[in-house]
Amino acid sequence: MRHEPDELRALSEDLLYEAQMLFGTADRLRRHVHEIEPLPVDLLDSCLESFAIHARLLDQFFWKDPKPGFPDDAFAADYFPAGEWAKTRTNVQRSKLDGISKRTGHEIAHLSYKRIHIAAEAREWEFDVIAGVIGYAFRLFLADVSSDLLTDGFESQLRQTWPTYLNFPYVGGFPPDQPAITVASEAVARALPASGVRRTLAALDVPALANWRAAL
User: Fold this and answer.
1) What is the mean pLDDT of residues 92-106?
2) Contacts by 167-175 with C-beta closer than 8 Å and gap 24+?
3) How far apart are CA 175 and CA 20, in angstroms?
């Protein structure tokens, strides 16, 4: 089902809210973990649960597709010609989001017997990594979406709330089984062809990475 431009613009206001909540709670959790601004247990749990709910929603928004039986559900694909966003999103390394919907369901949204079989270490949420993956999807979304389909000030407000490193010209990361890294240097920029802006750092050759490290 195709949606009218007015509908998509109106929806983008709620999309912006979802982004602000995701990145805002991730930042609050980060400040707690680094003991910059510790949270009492009740607020910590509330913040984490809020983060998980918004992460699940945005995971589905970016990586699910419209279905005829659910015409009111909204997706990033609604903003593009058929098949275009499905191709674009393959540029995001999203394995850290695998299972996030089910996990949010049985750990937060539903009281489930699955909870009693989860080890304490498995209950930890890699909120920074999750927020980064979704943030990168937002970057690709902004790069291609028509501004006519977004509410006024969408991009500027989003850039104020997501992690600062996402405002750098190039952002990449190792696959999730490797240390996370942010790339925003001229050395790496020169190593990427114009068509390679969306590649992850894993696609770069070793000399380019060595040059970037040497510049630090």
Assistant:
1) 92
2) 170/197, 171/136, 171/139, 172/199, 172/200, 172/201, 172/202, 172/204, 173/93, 173/132, 173/136, 173/200, 173/201, 174/200, 174/201, 174/202, 175/93, 175/95, 175/200, 175/202
3) 26
Whether this prediction's pTM lies above 0.85 is answered by: no
Name the nearest CA neighbour of 173 among 135, 117, 143, 146.
135
Torsion angle of C-alpha atoms 43, 105, 14, 165, degrees rounded to 10: 70
Instruction: Give the C-alpha separation, 211 to 216, whole Å.
Output: 9
List, for residues 182-195, the tens digit of each pLDDT value: 333 333 334 434 43
DSSP 3-state assignment of 136? helix
| Residues 112, 56: Cα–Cα separation, whole Å | 18
Under 8 Å CB-to-CB from 10, ≥6 apart: which residues? 151
Q: Which of 153, 164, 165, 155 is nearest to 201 (CA)?
A: 165
Q: Please, what's the largest Cα pairwise distance for the chain?
A: 54
Selection from 89, 71, 99 nearest residue 3 by Cα: 71
- Dihedral sign from CA coordinates of 30, 35, 40, 41: positive
DSSP state of 108: I
Is the CB of residue 123 less than 8 Å from the CB of residue 107?
A: yes
